Amino acid sequence: MVVGPTAVGKTAVALALSAHWSIEVISADSRQVYRRLDIGTAKPTPKERARLPHHGLDVVEPGSRYSAGHFARDAAVWIAEVRSRGKLPVVVGGTGLYVRALSDGLFHEPPLDPGRRRSLDAYTARLEPLELLRWAGRLDPGFRGGGRQRAARAIEVALLTGHPLSHWQEAARAQRAINPWYIVLTVPRPVLHQRIARRAEGMMRRGLIEEVAAVLSEGHDPTAPGLDGIGIREAVEFLYGVRPRETVAEAITISTRQYAKRQQTWFRHQLGGSVMTLDASGSVEGVAKRIVESDKG
Q1: Burial letters for 132-156: b for 16+ Cβ neighbours within 10 Å, e otherwise?
Q2: pTM for the full model?
Q3: What would be the CATH architecture of the domain defined by 2-105+176-296?
């Protein structure tokens, strides 16, 4: 898996890897699943997609919901198809929940009795936070902490299914489609900020406003799934008179920086197993070569 914050250069590295390995990309990007929103979601260009096949792009219509669970199920099929052609599937993206759903496997929850669930919810809602955490830890030895919602969830699953949540998660991991090797791309913050600003300005030059206006003309609600993401959201604000056109690129830049910071935090703390962190501020060919040489080692 090639992962990292937005604008770090994941697509470029994947293209460089294709010179060394026979690969196809599984896109793990929750915004690029929407059709006709190419500029606003920074999809690989048609030329790039012709050079390197991508799966997971243009999956659903704007306005449709597409969850991490949907992605994991679809990605398992794409991975099997890529392998059947004798090629290597490489997951590329920055949506942490998609990465986790695919690498950890899907947790298929047994049916829970609605009445018992409501009663248990009412009980756990009255518990103090420390007491809630204590019960979660006693009922699930694999509980790794968290807030009220996560603790209440651990208690609910353990009591209503007879097995702790960690048991079901481990069962899901045993059936996962891949055994991931994570390549986490990073660049110094000033470099990332520069790339983000350059990309936002490029979106405007390439016709972001016109692209979003065309999709809205189909009758979609401006807050519908697919239209509420960074880049597209700011274009919608202009089209509805909320902000001047000259502020759109800067607004996209600011929101993207904030999002990239959250992504970096997620990838630092949420990945398990084999992780390789690489500075992607140099040439993409150099990064790809280091990945290939590390795999040989």
Answers
A1: bbebbbebbeebeeeeeebbbbbbb
A2: 0.79
A3: 3-Layer(aba) Sandwich (3.40)
